[in-house]
Every structure is written in structure tokens, then in C-alpha cells.
Amino acid sequence: MLRHLLLASALVLGSAAADDPVRSATAKQMPELMDFYRDFHANPELSLQETRSAAKLAAEARAAGFEVTEKVGGTGVVAVLRNGPGPVVMLRADMDGLPVTEDTGLPFASKVRVTTAEGVETGVMHACGHDTHMASWIGALRNLAAMKGKWSGTLIMVAQPAEEVGKGAKAMLDDGLFTRFPKPQYVVAFHDSASLPAGTIGMKDGYVMAAVDWVDIQLKGVGGHGAYPHTTRDPVVLGSRIVVGLQTLVSRETDPQEAAVVTVGSFHAGAKPNIIPENGLMQLTVRSYSPEVRKNLLDGIARTARGEAIAMNLPEDKMPVVTVKEGFTPATFNTTPLTGRLTDLFKARFGDPRVAMVPASMAGEDFSYFNLPDKSVQTTLFWVGGVPQAAWDKAKQDGSALPSLHSAFWAPDAEKVVATATEAMTAAALDLLRRK
């Protein structure tokens, strides 16, 4: 009896999957999409160097009948499919890898090595999962081209460079993404997640990822012999006092209900134990959501650095120089109407257990630029879990650590990520472009 019940259940589930054209079309593509994934994984390219990846994506878009423009904002690809009257929907994927030497042990692991512009020899790896993003982009593109009878409007598929350095989205916008091509009312993207079990979708409206600033503090002192510190003004001591002082910007000057991070990630000064150096350099990353908190943090960094220098009796010409570096990435904001609509859609399609409401992250994403030029553009970036189920269960049971994004060990369950993301992105576009 049990055997017959199980067989009947399998037949029902198989029939349900077959009756769902989006899921069925995605399943048929999966062997080839996984080939794409493995190829992208084995051949990663650093930011603004994504020529091979861009060429493969452009070729797929042309084969599916899209109008394709390459080299937008550097190596970006814009593919447009016009299919009658209706809204304009943009689906975006990012292409760049990271200067990380892979240690996953995968049979198709990256062996690519480069020397960076800074002269550092390093491996290159898709340690942030953009290989799954590109494979899913191809899957959604093919699905939607084949389903033109089910939707009306204009679909724009964007393959974006340089997300990892926060420059690609702005570069594409500066190169006319919203003026040379139809301007979207809706922009949707996903990111694989190292904090959710594979195949789970994570949703959050409002602020979802943080604004990111890089700040340099150049320290100036009076150098001398380490045996005679009273004749010097030690920039190491000055920097140490600044590090301690900066901690109060979050703990005592930011509303506890607001999120903020100030991290001193690099502090360099001196070259020998018995020499007090003339200068030093501190490098910071600053994370926030609201513009008000961001301003308070940046103003506070400059004030703290100057105040500590005054306390050390440094003259005006020895005041620290605080520089907010180029490449600021705004906070990523998921607009409520679109995010709520997609949350309901995904729950109906995948079931409530596979759709989780997640907290905002202090990581950054330049997807944020797409709703800055005009607040009429609705945007949603959602997560697709990539943690293999066995690893997730083990971590829950014994507290073992899981590799994060940007880790040399990050190896998602790519099949579940690609299948889930392809289906979700296809379904999202079909819903937004549904025929009246």
C-alpha cells in the first residue's frame, strides 16, 4: 500500500511540474545551463575585464532574437526584446569575479591567475557567485523569448560589469542605459546567498544592502629615534587614538535603532622598530543606510582625526588629511510595491517554506544606482540561497562555520541556485509583463 501511495504522489508531483510551463521550460534547460555555469566558473574575469563572459552572453541574447548592444559602460551588454505595448522590465546580472585563489576542490575550479594593476599576483575566482547569476540570466532570457505569446511589453536583459568594485551600474547609466535604451519601470535582480539553504528565496523591502564609503586618513607626525620619543610627534600613537575614538561614532553618536559600521581595515606606519615614522596611513570602510547617518559618520571621522591631532599638540600643517575616496556605492533600496508583489508571487509559486523574510545586510551592491535617477523606477534585489542542504543541516546541528561570500571555499549548490533563480526571474517578468 505504501509503495502505491508513494508512486501516486510522485505521479501527481510530476504532473504538476509538467503543467507549469515555467518550471518545465527551466528543467529542460538545466543540463545546458549547468554547462554554462561550469564554464563561467572555470573562466572568471576581474572587474572591467569581463570580455569573454560578455561575448558569451551577447551571443546567447542574439540567438534568442534580442537586439544586442555590447560595450555599454565598458564591457556591459544590453539586450532588448520589444513585444508590443506594455511596461518596460529590466532583468540584471553581474559578471565579474574576485582576486581570490580558489580552494573549493571542485573539478572545474578556476586556475586563472593574473597580476593586478597594483602589481599583486593572485588567482581569480567567482567567489561571489556571479557565475550562477550569468547562467540564470541565460535561462530566463531563453524562457522569456520562447514565451512571447504570454506577455506584452519590452524586456531588457542587462549583463553588468564591475559590481565588485561598485563601478559597473553607474558606468552603464553614464553611458546611456536609461536614455539610449527604453527606460524601465521595473528593475529586478537576484544574488546568491551564503546565509540561506539552497533553493530558498530571501525577500526584504526597504533598505536591503548598505551604502559603502572608502575613507583614507593620512597621518602626519614628527619622526625621530625610538629612544627619544619626547622629541617626536608619533603618528602611530595618533592613529591608535583615532582608532579608539572612531568607535564612539557608532556606539555613542548613532541612534541604536540605526545601522552603521566604521571599520579600520588597514593601518600602515614605519619600517623599523627603533624609528618613529614621519607619516602613516589608515584605510577605512564605512557602512550605513540613511543619508543622515552616512553624513554623521563621515563628518565624525574628520572631526575625530582632527581632534586627536590637536590633543597631541600637532601644528596646523600636521593635521591629518581625511579623504573620502571615489567609488561611493549608495544603499540598495527595494521599493515596497514591487517587492511585495514579487514576495506574494514567489510564495504562491514556491510555497511559503521556500520564501524567507530576511534582515538587511551591511554588504554593498551597486544595484542601488538603478532607482537613483528617478524614483519612479521600482527595484527589487532578492536572494537565492546557495548553501548545500547537508552543510546547512550540519551547521545547525553542531554550529560548524559555513563559508561566506568572497571566501575561497564558497561552492554553492549551483544547480538549485540556477534552477530557482531562472524560474523566479522568468515568473517575475511574466507577471510584470502580463497581457491585459
Description of the molecule:
This protein is an alpha+beta fold. The protein folds into 2 domains: 20-210 and 331-432, Zn peptidases (Aminopeptidase, 3-Layer(aba) Sandwich), CATH 3.40.630; 211-324, 2-Layer Sandwich (Alpha-Beta Plaits), CATH 3.30.70. The protein has 10 helices and 18 strands. It has helices spanning 2-19, 21-42, 51-63, 130-146, 168-174, 235-251, 291-311, 336-350, 389-398, 414-432, and strands at 67-72, 76-83, 88-94, 113-115, 121-123, 153-160, 186-197, 201-203, 206-209, 211-220, 224-225, 260-269, 275-276, 279-288, 321-324, 332-334, 355-357, 378-387. Strands 1-2-6-3-7-18-8-17 form an 8-stranded mixed β-sheet, sandwiched between helices. It has a 4-stranded antiparallel β-sheet with strand order 12-14-10-15, with helices on one face. Helix 3 (51-63) runs parallel beside helix 4 and helix 6 (235-251) runs antiparallel to helix 7 (291-311). The chain is elongated.
Topology:
Blueprint: H1 2-19, H2 21-42, H3 51-63, E1 67-72, E2 76-83, E3 88-94, E4 113-115, E5 121-123, H4 130-146, E6 153-160, H5 168-174, E7 186-197, E8 201-203, E9 206-209, E10 211-220, E11 224-225, H6 235-251, E12 260-269, E13 275-276, E14 279-288, H7 291-311, E15 321-324, E16 332-334, H8 336-350, E17 355-357, E18 378-387, H9 389-398, H10 414-432
Parallel strand pairs: 3-6, 3-7, 7-18, 8-17
Antiparallel strand pairs: 1-2, 2-6, 4-5, 8-18, 9-16, 10-14, 10-15, 11-13, 12-14
Helix pairs in contact: 2-4, 2-10, 3-4, 4-10, 6-7
